[in-house]
Design brief:
The complex is a heterodimer of chains A (338) and B (300). Chain A has 338 residues and is an alpha/beta fold. In chain A, 38% of the residues lie in helices and 20% in strands. In chain A, helix 9 packs across helix 13 (323-336) and helix 10 (256-266) crosses helix 11 (281-292). Classes of the chains: A alpha/beta (338), B alpha/beta (300). The A-B interface holds A 47, 68-69, 71, 73-74, 76, 78-92, 94, 109-110, 113-114, 117-119 and B 75, 79, 81, 121-123, 129-134, 136-149, 151-152, 158, 170-171, 174-175, 177-178, 181-182. The complex binds thiamine diphosphate and magnesium ion. Thiamine diphosphate (TPP) binds next to helix 2 and strand 4 of chain B.
Amino acid sequence: MFRPGTGTAWGCVEMTRVDVARLPRQATRDAYGEALVAAGRADARVVALDADLSGSTKSQKFGALFPERFFNVGIAEQNMIGMAAGLAAAGKIPFASSFAIFVTGRAFEQVRQSVAYPGLPVRLVGSHSGVTVGQDGSSHQAIEDIALMRVLPHMTVLVPADGPSTRALVNESLSIEGPVYLRLGRPAVPVLYGEGGFAAPPFKAGGSVTLLAGRDATIVACGVMVAEAVTAAYRAEAIGLSVGVIDAYSVKPLDRDAVLAAARATGALVTAEEHSVIGGLGGAVAETVAEEYPVPVIRVGLLDRFGESGAPDELLKLCRLMADDILAAVRRAVAVKR
Amino acid sequence: MTDQRTKAAPHNQPGTPEERHARLAEAARQLRVEILRMTAQAGSGHPGGSLSSAEIIACLYFDVLRLDPARPSWPERDRFVLSKGHAAPVLYAALALRGFFPRELLATLRKTGSCLQGHPHMRTTPGVEVSTGSLGQGLSMACGLAAAARIDGAGWRTWCLLGDGETQEGQVWEAAEAAAHFRLDNLVALVDNNGLQIDGPVSQVMAVDQVPRWQSFGWRVLEADGHSIPDLLAAMQAALAGSGRPAVIVCRTTKGKGVSFMEGQADWHGKAPTPEQLARALEELGCSGQGPALPGGVSR
Ligand SMILES: Cc1ncc(C[n+]2csc(CCOP(=O)(O)OP(=O)(O)O)c2C)c(N)n1
Ligand SMILES: [Mg+2]
């Protein structure tokens, strides 16, 4: 049962096994492009801005349909954020998109001063997050964007794992009062929610989805790592471990109730994100349990290193972001728990 | 300024041009008095760049802008963005004298819990449109405001005041190219070209030749003596002509204007007058007492 605002109550599980490898695939940025168009149709206040990457971020479709509400500012991310702030101050709901590193990194101080501080309802959309950007290499792979956005007061940080949750969160973002950072990815990823996958609950800021319940440990994951976490949990069964999985798509506000319930029920947590282990979801979960119910938290993510060029799946291997890496973390967590 | 929206400008008073100019000169004098009092009271703040903007702000807030202090969020109001946010004292003085909030609040500038933050914040101060203070960001926000008016087919205008040193920020020129590209002719920028920044003359720190720079970015460039009310009013009127291009008024000003020992001194950028200095400054401005600058004010 989903409780609005607090996430899914502990114990709600899918009975049938989801075959992650056979699920249809869609990139979250493609789902974003569709959702943005739908939002533009549903709400005349929606406007979009991009910085010469509208074909990659998929805001282009919106631009073609609503040219009077679309601003391609050129390669000028700082101005894009300021213009989005001005549009928001005049009652619009701007979606400002670029690659995750540019929207959060290049324009960080603009986001801080012009958007977060006054709490303006700008939706910052960062596509091409993490190492699955692939061949472009480290300059284009945001591994610190969650940390950068999470530290800002007023900011909501959403990291959807698949297309349906992306669409739901874009729609949900229309009713979030303050600024929102939506983190998207480049590659096609399994469609976890819907036919053949998990039942899709309402997605809300501050929510989460408990995909699997476990007894021995719980994996708290976001983005592309949710599918890896599910695979890891199934593999854990083979070695006699019962492992839960939470899709923590709302990194901020974090679903504290769900995380703490998992800590109490399983006594050990693993976090998994395509991001530095510093300051992201792992940081958020560790901070939460350290204050309320200390249990071991093993963080899977980039171990204080940059990404590099390569095929996305090879980079996930290289950076130890695969299901088996999560499984190894689960074994460590179980081993150290009291 | 005359157009169909003049009706909505309750502060626009009839009178001869001379009366209008005198009224605005008096408003600028009162702004200066309040700037000095409030920074002295706060013990910190930025008098130099506030004083250099006094006539510009007087013309905008007491004549040109369509505003209704009783309805700070009236949708049809003109928007003003103080991109050089450190000049908050001159903006706060104008808002107070126009009745957006009680004048007594000026004494709380920069104090814990005050609605008057050290730099303008839209969430705490009635009449402040966006939050500024980090230089270089205001013109982008002004572009966004102007774009919103365009989308809505609304007639309100957006004005944005920048410092000359501020235009060293790259983002200013990102915004400048965007305003020209999107043909935001409902946007007017003003540069307080006082020739000084913190570390000294702009020409020595990092020279910016304002007129050719804005021209090369596709803007319509107007120039004015930034301390001459008739000059400023004429330029502001011309800026609104609407030509498919954004307009900028480069205002020749003197930093610290109106106080002899502050004029042209980079040193007075960011420090408050002592009580003795305040007394001398107020005397120069024809106001020695502690009471209101002038009973009755000039706001109506
Ligand atoms: C991004 C940023 N960098 C530095 C500062 C510190 N600062 C405040 S005022 C100022 C000088 C501004 O000079 P100018 O734009 O010429 O303003 P004015 O002379 O009108 O006061 C500086 C460097 C700031 N507020 N924002
Ligand atoms: Mg200056």
